[in-house]
Amino acid sequence: MSALPMPDADLIQQCLRGQRSAFPILYRRYQRQVRGTLFQLCGAAELDDLVQEVFFRAWKGLPKFRQSAQFSTWLYRIAWNVATDRRRAQGQARSQSLPVPPAPSAEPSTLTQLHYEDVVQRGLQTLSWEHRAVIVLHDLEDLPQQEVASILHIPKGTVKSRLHHARSALRTFLQQEGIQL
Amino acid sequence: MTLPPNPPDDDRLVDFLRRHRPAPPPAAPQLEAQMMAQLTPLSSPPVLTQPRRWAIPAVAAALVLGVGGWVVGRSTVPSLPTASASEVEVFLADTWYGSAYDDEVRLPLDTTQPDWLASVYATPY
Questions:
Q1: Does residue A104 surpass a pLDDT of 70?
Q2: What is the per-residue DSSP string for B44-88?
Q3: For the residues A132-148, what does the mean pLDDT come to?
Q4: CB B36 to CB A24 under 8 A?
Q5: Which residue in the set A16, A105, A164 is minimally distant from B25, CB to CB?
Q6: How far A176 CA sits from the closest chain B CA (Å)?
Q7: Which of A11, A12, A25, A35 has the highest number of chain B CBs within 10 A, making it the mutation to test binding with B?
Q8: pLDDT at B9
Q9: ipTM associated with this complex
Q10: Sign, CA torsion A168/B23/A109/A122
């Protein structure tokens, strides 16, 4: 029987008491989500740097982290800020360009799968920054609407509205690409 | 504004996106180790610095002294004596009386009497 994983709050307390060894546990617990979100928002270029930046900011911000909040929501919020800062730094024009295509590391099952992945990636890129964010956080990361609202600091109704419009735009794009759902 | 209900193909769209979302490239092998090596010691939660710790009682003491001083000062400010009001009254009456009569006909004025003003009018010009 394996021991239950230590709660985030306990790990954070250990970090605050100076035990740095607790932070890699938090990193391993959430790096996949952070990495995936940043990749969908910003592409593959400088992905490692962006992930590092998120966890550096999280580490430095731990003393101010409110224990009543959810650590994952807070971390997603930092990831969103890092992605937004990077987008601003690069400028609107470059951010709209297609990201560097990911290396086919995960054994591509078929050419069709690769084609669909490319279509999804390009479809996300056609969306506005705000619409892309709600699709990534809600539909891909499977976060509840309320949590998405907390991460983006917008009302839940706005999340619903953006989700509606973003899905509609994606459906149109997929149809134009010859994909029938 | 009420949004229309989700179209029935929303679930199919989300399912398609999840199945075909591109996976991010793997992290550099040493990424975690590099990151952890660069963590600087955490600063303590923000606490009041020494001057600020003294500032609160200092401000409170200043307030107490200020308000107390104002109250005490207010109670010790000399108010106009009531006698001076009557003196002013006599002065005004004398001045007016003196301007109306020659010195030789000027009678002493006793303003302590209730009818002192009537006596003024009773005096012939």
A1: no
A2: PPP---HHHHHHHHHHHHHHHHHHHHHHHHHHHSPPPPHHHHHHH
A3: 96
A4: yes
A5: A105
A6: 14
A7: A35
A8: 80
A9: 0.83
A10: positive
Matching CATH topology for A8-98 and A104-181? no
Chain A, 38 to 67: residues with Cβ < 8 Å from chain B are 38-40, 44, 47-48, 51-52, 55-56, 59-60, 62-64
Residue pLDDT, tens place only, B4-26: 556 678 899 999 999 999 999 99
Copy the structure tokens of residue B36: 């952890």
Within an 8 Å CB–CB cutoff, is residue B22 touching chain A? yes
Instruction: Give, in degrees to the nearest 5, the angle at Cα A141 between A139 and A147.
Output: 90
DSSP label at residue A177? T
pLDDT in tens, A21-69: 999 999 999 999 999 999 999 999 899 999 999 999 999 999 988 877 8
pLDDT of residue B49: 46
How many A×B Cβ pairs under 8 Å?
108
CATH class of A8-98: mainly alpha
> Can you tell me which residue has the tokens 């706005």?
A158
CB A51 within 8 A of CB B31: yes
Distances B11 to A33, A139, A171, B3 between C-alpha atoms, Å: 22, 10, 12, 17
Domain ranges for chain A: 8-98, 104-181
Is the predicted pLDDT of residue B125 greater than 70, yes or no?
Answer: no
Domain A104-181 has CATH 2.70.150.10: no
